[in-house]
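User: Show me an example of a complex going from sequences to structure tokens.

Assistant: Sure. Here are the input components:
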Amino acid sequence: MSDHSTAAHDVRPYYFVFGALLVLTVVTVLVSYWHLPPGPAIAVGLAIATVKASLVAAFFMHLKGERVIIYGLLGVTTFFVIILFLLPITDSNWTSERRPDKPALAAQAEASEH
Amino acid sequence: MVKNSHSSPHDSHAPQSFWSHYVFSTDHKMIGLQYLITSFIFLLIGFSLMMLMRWQLAFPGHPIPLIGSLLSSAVAPNGVMTGEFYNQLGAMHGTIMVFLGIVPLGVGAFGNYVMPLQIGAPDMAFPRLNMMSYWLYLPGGLLMLLSFLLPGGAAQSGWTSYAPLAIINPGQTVWLLAMVIIITSSLLGAVNFLTTGLNMRAPGLSLDRLPVFTWAQLVTAVLLLLAFPPLEAAAILQLMDRVAGTSFYLPAGLVVLGQQVKASGGGQPLLWQHLFWFLAHPEVYVLVLPPMGIVSEIIANGTRKPLHGYKTLVASMISIGVMSFIVWAHHMFLSGMSPMLGNFFLVTTMIISVPSVAILTCLIYSLKGGSIRFTVPMLWALAFIPLFGIGGLTGLPLGLTTTDIYLHDTYYVIGHFHYVVVTGSIIALLGGTYYWFPKWYGRKMDETLGRIHFWGTVVCMNGIFFPMFIQGMAGQNRRYFDPTAHLHNLPTQPLHVVSSVFAWLLFLFQLPFIYNFFSSMFKGERVDDNPWEATTLEWACPSPPPHGNFVKTPRVYRGPYEYSLPDQTRDWLPQHEEAKALT
Amino acid sequence: MTTALAHPADAPSSGVTNAKLGVWLFLASEVMLFGTLFTTYLVLRMGAASWPRGWDVLNVPLGMLNTFVLITSSVTIVLSYVKAAEKDLAGFRAYMAATIALSFVFLVVKGFEYGAHFKHGEFPSTNIFNAVYFTMTGLHGCHVIGGIIVNTALLYLSGEDFEHPLFAGRVEGAGLYWHFVDIVWIFLFPALYLL
């Protein structure tokens, strides 16, 4: 918590963040109407979502100015989540040509066999 | 000595009614004992299932003597067990031993009882959450057992529940439900342990003065906290596959027994294996770290000298904890996973063996030059070192992709991980039971019965598991219902008989322990608060500790293992005692 | 409870109260839980032969409405914490009641979306996208229900416990959880509806 935790809290940052979250939501929806190709669409969507999540965490969850122990905990968790994303996805991509339920690839494989 | 062997003023705070004292207790000590008794019963049940399987393996096709006639004809017509029943026994043996036996014993029982005492806390940080953990664990475990009686029987796809087999086999739904309950229980426990360990330490007990056992509990809690949720999520997805007809783990065009499976497809069976082992490899360390902590405590106490390399021990435990999250796919080398990724996991697996060896080295060096007291707990701790070593070293050929091609899914694997969790974890947990029993009941367990139990158990355990290495290297596959059905298994078939006989003997050698445990509770030799002349804080409170544990919050002045200091009259200096004017 | 053994001031500690540390630890495990679901989403999507674009199969305006609802509820719950810390019972109750009301709005909107899918014969078993969509939003919905239970309990207990020194801390804990539920939705919404 910040310094003024005694009597009157400063609630203005909350309204400011609230406004920013609403605007960013509108932006991410508007961008989606351009129907970008998946690559850029994911980049933009993920970036906006990360900004929004960071705002919520930093201000509403008071992560801004939190104790070191919480940062440490979240750091460790983030590290393991990244591993959890990275390795199974890598495996899935590196083995994708072997999966028969990708019809295009399966057809190719059959064609090359004959 | 500490002047607190009298009844404490906090006794009056103790809960009065039978229900709130023995059943819905929020006291970490009572919950610890509840966990202790319950998990020992589950261990016995899991062991009994295995004794039935051992009959089938040793004498396939013969009716099971005595018990065969008691089984329903659906699972064992004429006393001969069916393949389906054998599979149920196998799946439930693994599940019960891992999730309902060893983890609750190492964490729920020992962690719950001993850790708050070792850090000088009056109770856990969240007593009611603690009670909830137990009351999720017990129903979850009972639900798991109940599944034997349901139509379709218990789960029969192994404790790993690989998809798509697990999605098609009967009995799996209840297994998944029970697992979700048990995992939730473990998660609550992990939150509680970490908060307690970080926030409730006595004054002066900085992290570098924590006993190794408490360190092991904290690392274990981190593993439980961060590794269990992925299995919970994965189990929910498998539950959706079974109940809602989704296809998370079902590929398109799956054909089973000549019939096209009715599902939309698009899922990936390997995804289950990744998510399962993301939990289950850290889980292996959840099984092993608390026992390592127990052994460290006993070794320091039994050798009467400080642990060799306290900092190395703690650092090794932490690095094991971190590394355990990036080695999981060494269970999947032959699953069809990308071989290139297999190389990554090979390297990490070889790296994680370094801290494990460092721990064993520290423990061995601790023995050097010690004036060892061969008490019953010390015997177990001493047995742990070489036997766990065998378990660990036999794992190396399984972690190397090339040798794993040959050994994968053979009896060698069974031998390897049973050396780790049975002659490793269970031996240490039994030693811990003898070690802390005086703290629980104010009485000691009987020495002679303890020695009989020790020697019988250690010999029998080796008799069961050592032959499996030979069978595995001879090419015998695991999980087969009838080993004699394959010609290449016949030469090693007699070893199955050896294993089975030792398994049944092992059961007989547990009888003195069970008798000893309960009779010592009431009739054991009375001992004072610190019968082992130990230094850590749990021996600073009365035995059994009253509600609130310590008469006066202890203050810690030094590290955990100050034995045989040269300028002291006694050979131990407890953490909480102010250093007297030295000689 | 064990007041006789009040924790000494010079004891080592993490500097965070038990309740707050406990909630953060729990949230760390929740991160892993939803992290697993997102891994599943990514693995299945990248491995799929075809994957529908969210706007073709889902109702983006309703999803956006629900995003607004959850964001607003995040603001109201943090304000209810401020009021609890300032010992303003009426203010706390008003903001907490608003939070609970908004959570119900979220569930009702979600219910309409589900209803529309079922009416068109779209079930979790229909295809892999639906499986992911229903499971992820369903689990998120369960967390919303959990939040409603916790928040309602706090609202109910505020009659008796409001003056308790730890009460504001409990509200803060409930708030942390609720913001986490909000963050999950912040990622779910674009992942399912917009990409």
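The lines above are the inputs; the final block is the predicted structure for all three components together. The two ends of chain C are 53 Å apart (CA to CA).
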